[in-house]
Structures are given as C-alpha cells and as structure tokens.
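Example record used in the benchmark description.
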Amino acid sequence: VQLQASGGGLVQAGGSLRLSCVASSRSYILGWFRQAPGKEREFVAGFYWTDGSTHYADSAKGRFTISRDNAENTVYLQMNSLKPEDTAVYYCAAQYFGDYRYWGQGTQLTVSS
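Model output (structure tokens):
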C-alpha cells in the first residue's frame, strides 16, 4: 500500500487548509496523524472505508473534517480555524487488522500567530 500526503503549507491563525492523501488501495481505516516538534505522534481523524463513518480527536472536533473523494482513493482533511498549536507534520496512514501498517511521507503544516 502506498500513501501520498500533500497540501501542507504556511497559514495564519484562523485560516484553513485542506490536506490530501492518495492511497493505492483502500484499507479498513484511513487515518490522519500529526507530530509536532518534541512531541509524540498523535491521532487526528479517521475515515472508515467500509461505511464512511468518521472519528476525531478532541482537538480536531468541530474544526477538522475528514472526507473522501467518491471517485478516487483519496481522503481529505479539511482544517478550519487553525491555531498555532496545530503546527506539525501531518501523516496519513492505513489501518489493517487493527494496526496502522502503512504510512505516507508526511506534509508540514505551519500556523503562524
């Protein structure tokens, strides 16, 4: 499984950005994670290919939306009302049999205050 994440950049606080993850195949869950400097990698949001359901970390609820492109194996992470603490490298990952086994290369988001 290959995953290609893109869409990161520099944005001002309060702004919006959309990340994309193109997957070579569909897994059970496509998740977005992030890792800020000096911090552990953390879960942000997940999309279930089977039924389209989603789940979010508390930090993402109400601001981020995970969705898919109906025609392609692409999952998006729409991020609104961005905060400086959202600054991190964002990764997409594919879960199979309970583990996130495949990871994309990461895309940097920097939110300036």
